[in-house]
Amino acid sequence: MSTDKKVALITGGNKGIGLETARQLGKLGITVLIGVRDEAKGEAAVAELKKDGVEARAVKLDVDNSADYAAVAKLIEKDYGRLDILINNAGIFLDGRKANETSTTSKDILQKTFDTNFFAVVGLTQALLPLLKKSLGGRIVNLSSILGSNTLHATPGSFIYDAKTFAYDASKSALNAFTIHLAHELKDTKIKVNSAHPGWVKTDMGGEGAQLDIVTGAKTSVELATLQDSGPNGEFLHLGKPLPW
Question: Does residue 1 fall inside a structural domain?
Fold first, then answer.
């Protein structure tokens, strides 16, 4: 089932920002594969997307299960021959929200957060790189957060100065480092790697007080997934504007 249409894989694509990203990419004529842990929820999301005219497919992909990486790579190789876009969207937030609890954050919380938000992204991306290299212009989008900015965390008076959620923030800082390093390694290829800050979005993770709707929250991922060859590489962006690392 090879196709001339671009093919995108979005982890955690059955709800929230991931689902809206799938919808927006699909409306651009891109075939969307949504990686899901729960296949029933994946099929429900696909049915919703197809109502909007989006060519979508649910694929079994639990980012915390490395065995799924090889399986999804094999499926994409067999049915599409390449991967054009990888959006590492899946993520978790396990910290408390009331105060800075860095000194009492448990090793378990740190490990679980890093397993999903960092190690899974590295492992899946490495598994899919051979397929991305077959694209005429591969794009890797890592869903980060402004809370991963060490510069802003260290700057008194910044928007996030008093928003210290240690495990989540540190995992996104590590993810940003992966973006920088991988982009440098691939700088002489047609692949571009960038970190995206979606904004404070009204999702389950965003919680109370979130400012942006999901449609706006997906825009940065879509922009980075569809960059022209002259677009940025190895940058941290929100709606086209660079953020400090």
Answer: no
The pLDDT value given to residue 205: 57
Could you tell me what percent of the chain has a pLDDT over 90? 89
Task: Assign residue 56 the CATH number of its domain.
Answer: 3.40.50.720
- Which residue carries 């940025």 as its tokens? 232
CA dist 133 and 143 (Å) reads 21
Model confidence at 203, pLDDT cuts 50, 70, 90, reads low
Q: What is the pTM of this model?
A: 0.95
Query: Which of 34, 220, 35, 240 is CA-nearest to residue 142?
Result: 220
Mean pLDDT, rounded, of the chain:
94
**Which residues span the domain enclosing 151?**
7-242
Q: To 5 degrees, how large is the angle CA 70–CA 171–CA 211?
A: 110
Listed in sequence order, the residues at least 6 apart from 116 whose beta carbon sits closer than 8 Å to its beta carbon are: 63, 64, 90, 91, 92, 171
Tokens describing residue 52: 């909007």
Comparing C-alpha atoms, which of 112, 80, 64, 78 is closest to residue 9? 80
Beta strands in the chain (DSSP E): 7-11, 31-36, 56-60, 85-88, 139-143, 192-196, 236-238, 241-242
**Catalytic sites, residue numbers:** 168, 172
Phi, psi of 97 (to 5 degrees): -115, 0
CA 188 – CA 8 distance, rounded (Å): 22
Dump pLDDT digits (tens) for 39-56.
Answer: 999 999 999 999 999 999
Helix, strand, coil % over all residues of the chain, rounded to 5: 40, 15, 40
